[in-house]
Design a protein that fits this description.
55% of the residues lie in helices and 0% in strands. It is mainly α and 584 residues long. The chain is elongated, with a radius of gyration of 38 Å. The chain starts with a helix and ends in a 33-residue tail after the last helix.
């Protein structure tokens, strides 16, 4: 309630209210819904009475909205409060980086009036303009959230030296993390529209905001809280991401994808992330790819999502080939074409990823094989990583069938195993016999070719082992396919290795370089012939079984450890199963 004339002289609203109350023979007016409440009204009243009014970044928006509500315009009286506040905003607030951010935050409580008065848009433009100015014109005093450097201490006589410290282009990103996501989005959009900052700086700003506003984001999780708010934050950040490749790290994109899955973001946001991750998958790490499966799933990790990412990676070459049909010159210089180096990095990445997910006892073989086959088109000089993954799967899934064991082992090429991998494989009781025979053969051929010549192609006899076409040489065996696909026992491994080693020495391989290629050729032929006879008759296995009584039924090799395993528990040998008992 007021009966004061100074208020009436400066407020159009009060003049109308008083006139209306006079008609109703009342000496009171009600203004209970004034923006900013009693505090804002007090500022307006003090101004009308000529009292000192203190405006600052925290109360100026409320005062401006209250003055607008009271109609304190220039048309009522020159130099009225609205004019004074607008001058204060333009001459002081919008020139200050810190105050502009504070004022922008206070506008939320005054919506929608603060938006109608363009205070919000003016603040946003002021902030964006300052973020885009030349860094040579930026003083460290613009920022207020960072920790002070030692030389900035006022007691330090060299405190002025901070002026000479170069200001980074992203000096503003931490300060903007104070804004809520809706205002933050508008500021970043305004900055991008000006086109004066690089995509890399924009990416760093989005990364900083994510780490600040999404609790647990750095660890690839989202802590419990306002899921709707977090979803809005994630969706907005994804929408603001630069579309160009290389300006956002793959690790950050994968963390965003994990967050999008946790907060149940829309399909559009997920698809955009998958597409951008796939375009730079070679930069990812195994830990980045390990995304937890949704609640209720039997498996530990979301392998399907990784398959989608790999598909996006591989499709880049298909796009390049498609474009080359229409414009071959443009295709040659297209930056999206995959290099052999990036393909190899992705192949190694997936091998390592397969090794990790293979530890999941509930992982279906089909998911493992499907992902491995997606990168099988990428030529790799060595298959050691794939062997580790296969061995880990066999170790963690001892109950798989012979056909499944055969299927997973077909993924690797025994010729591309290193010496260390071969040494491990020939003692590995988890591998089918056909695989062990191939590894043994190539180990001996590698030794025979120690002069520096390339490893010979797989002879037809060994190809038959791999393909399952054994021909007449094994027609006398009982259930030959089951024998080949069953795991090799420690005794069989030792016997096979001993026979080939003896055969190698008997042919003089490695003893003299004078025979050259003839020695290797004769060794290859003799090895194949010897292996056919050995495996056809299996006399040596009969001898082994007959002597097992003294050795014990459960003898096995203690050297069958997971290649490269750092965990002693993981290195324990899996007891051999399905031992073969056959006579000569």
């Amino acid at each position: 309630m007021t009966r004061s004339f100074p208020l009436l002289s400066k407020s159009a609203c009060l003049q109308k209210l008083v006139a209306s109350s006079n008609e109703e023979n009342s000496d009171e007016v009600q203004i209970s819904d004034i923006p900013g409440g009693p505090v804002a009204f007090e500022i307006c009243a003090k101004f009308c009475y000529g009292m000192t009014v203190t405006l600052n970044a925290y109360n100026v928006v409320a005062a401006r909205c209250a003055a607008e509500y009271l109609g304190m315009h220039q048309t009522i009286e020159k130099g009225n409060l609205i004019y004074k506040i607008d001058v204060f905003l333009n001459s002081s607030i919008f020139r200050s980086w810190k105050d502009s951010i504070i004022v922008l935050q206070t506008t939320k409580s005054m919506l929608p009036l603060s938006e109608e008065l363009k205070v919000v848009s003016l603040c946003i433009d002021a902030i964006a303009t300052k973020a885009c100015i030349d860094v040579s014109k930026v003083d460290w005093s613009y920022t207020y959230n960072r920790r002070k450097l030692p030389e900035e201490n006022e007691n330090d006589p060299n405190c002025n030296g901070v002026r000479s410290r170069p200001v980074p282009k992203d000096w503003w990103i931490e300060d903007l993390c104070e804004l809520e996501i809706d205002l933050y989005k508008r500021v970043i959009m305004n900055i991008k529209t000006k086109g004066m900052l690089s995509h890399q700086v924009i990416g760093e700003a989005l990364k900083a905001y994510s780490y600040r506003r999404l609790p647990g984001f750095s660890k690839g999780v989202i802590h419990s809280g306002n899921v709707v708010k977090y979803r809005s934050t994630v969706d907005t950040i994804v929408w603001l991401l630069p579309a160009e490749k290389g300006f956002i790290s793959c690790s950050f994109l994968l963390k965003l994808l994990k967050a999008a899955i946790i907060v149940d973001s829309g399909e559009m946001a997920r698809e955009q992330l998958v597409r951008q991750i796939g375009q730079q998958l070679e930069e990812a790490s195994v830990n980045d790819l390990l995304m937890r499966a949704a609640e209720g799933e039997d498996v530990m990790y979301d392998v399907d999502m990784v398959q989608q990412i790999v598909k996006e990676f591989l499709i880049q070459d298909q796009n390049a080939d498609f474009e080359s049909e229409e414009n071959e010159v443009q295709e040659i210089q297209r930056p999206g074409i995959l290099t052999d180096a990036s393909k190899l990095m992705v192949a190694k990445l997936i091998d390592a990823y397969l090794t990790e997910i293979a530890k999941d006892p509930n992982l279906p073989l089909s998911k493992f094989v499907d992902l491995a086959e997606m990168v099988s088109c990428i030529s790799r000089p060595a298959h050691d990583g794939l062997y580790r993954a296969i061995d880990m799967y066999l170790k963690e899934h001892p109950g798989i069938s012979k056909s499944e064991r055969k299927r997973i082992c077909k993924l690797m090429d025994c010729k591309k195993l290193s010496v260390d991998a071969c040494m491990h494989a020939v003692q590995n009781e988890r591998l089918p016999l056909r695989v062990v025979v191939q590894v043994l053969f190539f180990e001996q051929v590698r030794a025979a070719a120690s002069s520096g010549s390339s490893t010979p192609d797989l002879p037809k006899g060994l190809k038959d082992l791999n393909s399952g076409s054994h021909g007449s040489s094994r027609s006398a065996a009982t259930n030959p396919e089951e024998d080949w696909d069953a795991v090799a026992t420690a005794e069989e491994l030792k016997a096979l290795k001993g026979e080939l080693a003896a055969l190698r020495l008997g042919n003089g391989v490695g003893g003299s370089e004078r025979n050259g290629g003839d020695s290797r050729n004769s060794f290859d032929k003799a090895a194949i012939s010897k292996m056919k006879g050995l495996l056809k008759s299996k006399r040596i296995f009969t001898k082994i079984w007959s002597s097992k009584g003294a050795q014990g039924e459960n003898s096995g090799s203690d050297s069958s450890e997971s290649l490269g395993s750092a965990n002693p528990e993981e290195a324990k040998s899996t007891p051999s199963r399905n031992r073969r008992h056959s006579g000569s």
